[in-house]
Design goal:
Layout (H helix, E strand, L loop, with lengths): L1 H8 L4 H16 L4 H9 L8 E3 L2 E3 L3 E3 L10 H4 L6 E7 L12 E4 L4 E4 L8 H11 L6 E6 L10 H12 L5 E5 L14 H18 L23 E5 L5 H14 L3 E4 L13 H7 L3 E4 L3 H14 L6 E4 L5 H10 L3 E4 L1 H6 L2 H11 L3
Parallel strand pairs: 3-4, 3-13, 4-7, 7-8, 8-9, 9-10, 10-12, 12-13
Antiparallel strand pairs: 1-2, 5-6, 6-11
Helix pairs in contact: 5-6, 6-7, 7-8, 10-11
Length: about 375
């Protein structure tokens, strides 16, 4: 079914196809009878899929990566695909349009995407308002991926992350610090030891300041500012283009700051090896490459970090997961959880169910 739909969607610009896909999902789920059939088709659960990672209870280890639902508009509909967790954002303090269109491109021969979205989002207040209004889907962990505005200089970046952290603190289950997108000028410079240590230390101090004994949720609604909440796990999302020395620095910074884990990896600025002609790729311009070409490198990074930490580091694996084999590869390398995005575009919504089923019924 999805292959037929994909052939139509791939005739449209990628951003337009994305919008129509999520709107179509919402319409399907609002249709009595049809919604039940849809959920039955994609629902799959087994008790063995449950995980406790970063101290949080995940119903299953397959998540939706950041970037798909930046503004919290679709997460309740996307939950019907069976995700154990979903990451919203990247969100910034102020709304921003992002880079000029076109800014998202398909490479079908490579089962890949190139994007230079540029943290386009409606701002943290808009996301917080939706979360307060709509609550959360049952049995789904929500993460908040936070970044800085393009106009904010790096020396003031910590302020932007603090604003987002404080605003979302009562509303999400964990945070992801995004300093690894290639589409915001100079952002990746924040991955260097000194600025990254300062940023993470500040957020950890704020985390402890905001922490209070947890208050029970009611009616599936999220808490509101002023309610009492537990400390939130903080994760760092890193680029796949870091050197071994830089990865060693990351491990030292994680240990020194006491953050809870790593998401490996973000998109890459590399362009090799690709089946798509080099001239065609060059004509698309700058941006982060995701999808199947990232599979090997992201797995290498996961394996290195896991090995060097003695298997003690909690890692979410993302990058090139578009089938059962690529998912299992990430777990074997040391990932405790995984996320998908580009793989959904090429493999369709059944990917989540297939991965979960493979974890329960190997082979």
């Amino acid at each position: 079914m999805y292959n037929a739909l994909k052939s139509l969607l791939f005739k449209l610009p990628p951003e337009e196809a994305h919008r129509l896909t999520v709107q179509g999902l919402a319409a399907t789920l609002s249709t009595p009878g049809v919604s039940d059939l849809f959920r039955a088709r994609y629902r799959y659960h087994d008790r063995s899929l449950k995980r406790r990672v970063f101290g949080l209870p995940f119903h299953n280890p397959v998540g939706l990566a950041a970037g798909f639902d930046k503004d919290g508009k679709y997460y309740k509909d996307m939950a019907s695909l069976g995700f154990g967790f979903m990451e919203l954002g990247t969100v910034t303090p102020l709304p921003q349009e992002g880079n000029p269109r076109p800014r998202l491109f398909r490479l079908p021969a490579d089962r890949a995407l190139i994007n230079r979205m540029g943290f386009n989002n409606e701002g943290v207040d808009a996301l917080a308002s939706r979360l307060l209004r709509d609550g959360r889907p049952p049995k789904v962990i929500l993460g908040g991926n936070i970044g800085k505005n393009k106009v904010t200089p790096n020396e003031s970046a910590t302020r932007d992350y603090v604003i987002c952290f404080e605003r979302l603190f009562p509303l999400v289950d964990y945070f992801v610090v995004n300093v690894s997108s290639p589409n915001t000028p100079n952002l990746r410079a924040l991955q260097e030891r000194e600025p990254l240590t300062a940023l993470l230390t500040t957020l950890q101090e704020l985390n402890e300041k905001l922490t209070r004994p947890a208050k029970t949720e009611t009616n599936g609604k999220l808490g509101r500012p002023g309610e009492l909440w537990q400390r939130k796990p903080i994760l760092l999302k890193i680029a796949p283009d870091l050197t071994q020395g830089q990865l060693d620095d990351i491990l030292e910074i994680v240990a020194a700051s006491g953050i809870d884990g790593i998401i490996a990896t973000n998109t890459t600025i590399a362009r090799e090896p690709l089946a798509t002609a080099a001239g065609e790729v060059a004509a698309l311009g700058n941006g982060g490459l995701s999808g199947a070409p990232l599979r090997e490198r992201s797995t290498e990074v996961i394996r290195y970090l896991s090995t060097q930490s003695g298997g003690e580091l909690d890692i979410i694996g993302v990058g090139g997961i578009d089938d059962v084999a690529s998912a299992q590869e990430k777990f074997a390398a040391g990932a405790r959880l995984i996320q998908v995005y580009s793989g959904l575009v090429y493999a369709g919504p059944g990917l989540v169910r297939r991965i979960k089923k493979s974890l329960v019924q190997p082979g």
